[in-house]
Design a protein that fits this description.
single chain, 232 residues, alpha/beta, Rossmann fold, 6 helices, globular
Amino acid sequence: MRYMVENEIICGDCLSVMKDWPDGCVDLVLTDPPYGLGFPYDSYVDSKENLVKLIEKTMPELLRISKLFAITCGITPMHFYPMPNWTLACVWDTTGSYGMFGYTQWFPVLLYGKDLSGIGNINGILKSDVIKITGGGGVGFMRDSADKDHPCPKPITLINKLVQRLSMKGNLILDPFCGSGTTCVAAKMLGRRFIGIDISEEYCQIARDRLRAVDTGVPVKEARAGQGALFE
C-alpha cells in the first residue's frame, strides 16, 4: 500500500498519495480545502475556476476512501461542492473578547456519509446541528495572532470540537490539504491516529513542528529559538 503511513505529515499531491489506498480505509476525512484565493493563501489553486477543477478531481477519491467526510468550507465556495448528506454550522462568538467590538461569525461544515451513532451527545459534544465556540484567543482565522505561520489557520478550539463530534478515540483521521496541521494536532491531542498531506513542504514542516510541540510541551516559537523539552 503506497504512502499510507499513520501519524505522519506527507508532502505531495493528495491524489497521487491516496491512489492505492483501499476503499473506506479512513474513519474521517476532516479538511479545510483551498478557497481559490491564490498564493499565499492556497498551495493548490490560484482561482475559483481551478478550485472547481480541484474539487471535481479530488472529491470522488476522498469519498471512496472515507467512512465520513467533513469539509469546513466558507460560505462563498460551498455551492461548488456536491450536495452533502447533512451539515453542521460552526459558530464562534467573540462578544466581550475585544471590549465593545466583539463579533459573531459562522461557517458551514458539509458532511458526506453517516453520522456517528448515539443520542444526546458524542464524546461530550452535544449532538446538535450547531457547534459553538466562545471567547477570543484563537477564534476566526487567528487574525490577531502574531504567531501564525499560515494565512488562514482554523482555530484549534474549533477543530478539537469537530474531531470530538465526528470521530472516536483510535479512529484514523485524514487531512488531505493539511496546511499548518491543525486537524492533525487536534487528532493527536485527542487520541486519534492521523495522516496529513500537503503539497507545500513549507507548510508540512510547520505541521511537523506543531505536532512535536504536542509531544514536548515546548511551543513552536520557543523550540525554534533553541529551547528544549524538560524531559525527552
